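User: Here's a protein and a ligand (alpha-L-arabinofuranose). What would the complex look like?
Assistant: Let me lay out the input and then the predicted complex.
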Amino acid sequence: MTTFTCVADTEVPLVEVDATKKLSKIDDMIYGGFTEHMGRCVYGGMYDPGNPLSDEHGFRKDVMDALRELDIPVVRYPGGNFVATYNWEDGVGPKELRPKRPELAWLGTESNEFGTDEFMKWLDVLSEGKAKRVEPYFALNFGTGTLREALAWVEYCNGTKDTYYANLRRKNGHPEPYNVKYWALGNEMWGPWQVGQMTKEVYAETAAQWGKAIRLLDPNVCLILCGETGHASWDHHVLRECIEFVDMHSIHIYTAAHAHMPNVTAPLSAERAIQTAAALIDMARIEKNIDPAKPQTTICFDEWNVWDPDRAPGDKGGEEAYTLSDALAVAVWLNVFIRQSRHLGMANIAQTVNVISPLMTTKEGIIKQTTWWPLLLYSKYMRGTAVACHVKCGSYKGETQPKWLQNVLQDGAPWLDVSATLSHDGMVNLAVVNISETEEFSTELRGVGSECKVYTVTGPEVMSCNMDGKEAVNLEESEWKVNDKVAFPKASLTMLRWKA
Ligand code: AHR
């Protein structure tokens, strides 16, 4: 948590860290990824057979190497909206027998060349050299799909007995169960764009029935309820009806605005969404008289990012060209996750490659977008425990996106958006996003070590982009001796690290 005192812009700002005040554990799973059969995410992104940059499985090695740097703990698959017409059985078995199908979310054709077994293999390769494997997280088809198909998929992945789908997995060359723990009960079933859109009442009844059956088949699964934004009546209803059966509650938010200030402050709406969803979870537990011994239902923010679908339409592949402003928005998003970490069990940036992604491929290599750098820095350093910090500075009080954000930001959005952690290596990590496009802030620091490693992400202008052939926005490393004040450059992310 970060507390905030709003002062006049003329006062010298202050950032104070108290690493002895440990507030909440940060679940590593907040640095999760998401790969959907959409645009060039799977085909041409993760999987590009025949390309000299790919391995013997057709997996792009340069993409793999980049993702290893991010140390992703979990990847959601295969959608997104795609899953609402997906039959997982089309994507297993001999490739030459797999049917091509019309794909109704993004209006393409799905070749089914890449399916469950390829995804699991891809995760195996991604996990090489790691102490813990990268976890799979599958979303179930609540659109055209049936409970029978869903149970068959769980059995295919996790079955250990002499049963049809467990044997089918063995026949396909995978004797051991995959032990897929995370299963989403549908995706955005509230959305008018969704094949099989449901009312909240119908969804809640269906989710409870499916959840019950899946758990009978495999009691070890973690079931994830399909929420909306966290601040919708859908969330309220489905949580109340399903709280007994689910482990996590999924919410999705994408932020974006044309102008820098509404763009960079928009992720603060996600902070309110998390707080609201957490309150709805509390309410559901109270109303349903849930045994306190039942572990807390956590929030699974399994789609988040900066995305303007008018700028980068989904049916055209959703390829955003991110700016410095977007990179700072991503840093604010990640500060939100640290500050609200007590409520979060998982978060998944949408998406992992090419589609609204920090990482792009060409036939010849990869491009790290502006948003790559904050994601890399936070994933590397902002793990462990969130610690107390206080910010005193002026604030932005202008237009916001969404508009309602102005109602909840009573003192405006602080010019310095801050979070702090104590990581397992005994380092304190302080992330400061100066959201101002014009002002550098010379800032008093308290509780900060006298010698810090410093990482800065900035660029020439807030609209600077890395997709024009040069890395206008990247990462600079330095060391600072901190005694009195330090300057946070305009439109920048600065991460300071020191020994606790
Ligand atoms: O991530 C892109 C799309 O955005 C997903 O398919 C969908 O769930 C969301 O609307």
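Summary: The chain has two domains: 2-22+388-499, 26-383.
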